[in-house]
């Protein structure tokens, strides 16, 4: 058995975390039982390059139980949970990942997972697929198909396909509604509030809580903040989104106005320079600013630094900027994703949906991959419906269905005229 992790003795601690995740991931657990006998992935070798977390461990187990041979690397040097990696290795899956690995080690780890010559690949960010295309194109012939977890990865793959360079079909798991919608609204919504609370312990009730951007992440965050009793203000650049925010019951205004009244600011736009010098200058004493958007450029840190007299870390992930105007601004997680730095990212229940999508997409790759062309493919809408239904089933929630008469009414274009 081959693996490289920080310390195999951490396995027991990792196993506890994985057990906890299993108890929160009913859909994957259901699929594991469903396919335990049939083994739809028998004979397949799955190379995965995905955050090594307790949730990923449950996905790996589901793949293994379904008959796949698996080899794993992390897709981000800072997201690996070392005890989880140790438990995965200890359970018999080759895994090459540890927290804080450098760039060379990162690619070494991906290469190590390619040694067994995979038939299926699973990516988050397309690094594994890129590595195959750039360094080991000989292996592409053996790969039936692959899957991709994120927006960024899907974007890269579509560009490759457009340039005619993609060597095998890939299913864009990200674009399934049961993936991105649940991640962004419910995952980011809750974990962002969680990150703010862990790094501040403020009372949200009664606070003026400013959300920049009313995309799915902004909508999730705004709705959870309201649920805690905050008075939520939304800022937008898109009139349609702004109107939706207003009709959803939020106050909508320009950031130039919100900056002067807000107690807590969170950016969720994907754009740079959402909070800049003139906003910091207007902010009330004690204002809290953080970001849950894609990058750490939404809050202009250079502008904030230029206004400061002094800065000190007042508690973990919380820096107090004492400004020259005498006021204080508290910056959380250095402007990086507050839901990751200050909390634990998406809850397991949300990852359950993403990873069940990954799993079903890989089964489809094994079954139909040879018939798909070397392009980026969507998850079929039936998979979304099946998964949503499964999640409800596992929660013991039944829903209505149409009677044959209602179906007929649905299809009858003359009815009602
Ligand atoms: C860490 C994830 C990234 C961890 C890992 C360890 C710990 C906490 C870094 C990640 C992603 Cl970049 O997970 C969380 Cl101790 N996730 C996904 C995730 N989020 N992503 C919030 O939780 C989605 C995303 C992000 C950040 C999309 C686009 C850009 C940035 C992997 C994961 N999370 C569940 C962890 N539950 C404990 O498995």
Q: How does this structure look, described?
A:
The protein has helices at 11-24, 26-35, 54-65, 82-90, 103-114, 127-135, 137-140, 151-162, 177-200, 216-227, 239-247, 255-261, 277-282, 301-307, 338-341, 348-368, 381-394, 404-411, and strands at residues 45-49, 69-73, 95-96, 120-123, 145-148, 170-172, 208-212, 231-235, 251-252, 264-267, 287-291, 308-315, 318-323, 328-332, 376-378. It has 417 residues and is an alpha/beta fold. It folds into two domains: 8-179 and 346-394, Adenosylhomocysteinase-like (Rossmann fold, 3-Layer(aba) Sandwich), CATH 3.40.50; 186-341, 3-Layer(aba) Sandwich (Rossmann fold), CATH 3.40.50.720. An eight-stranded mixed beta sheet has the order 9-8-7-10-11-14-13-12, sandwiched between helices. It has a seven-stranded parallel beta sheet with strand order 3-2-1-4-5-6-15, sandwiched between helices. β7, α10 (216-227) and β8 (231-235) form a beta-alpha-beta unit. The protein starts with 10 loop residues before the first helix and ends in a 6-residue tail after the last helix. The relative contact order is 0.12. Ligand XFA is lined by residues 51, 53, 55-56, 76, 79, 81, 150, 294, 337, 339-340, 344-346, 351. Ligand XFA binds at residues 51, 53, 55-56, 76, 79, 81, 150, 294, 337, 339-340, 344-346, 351.
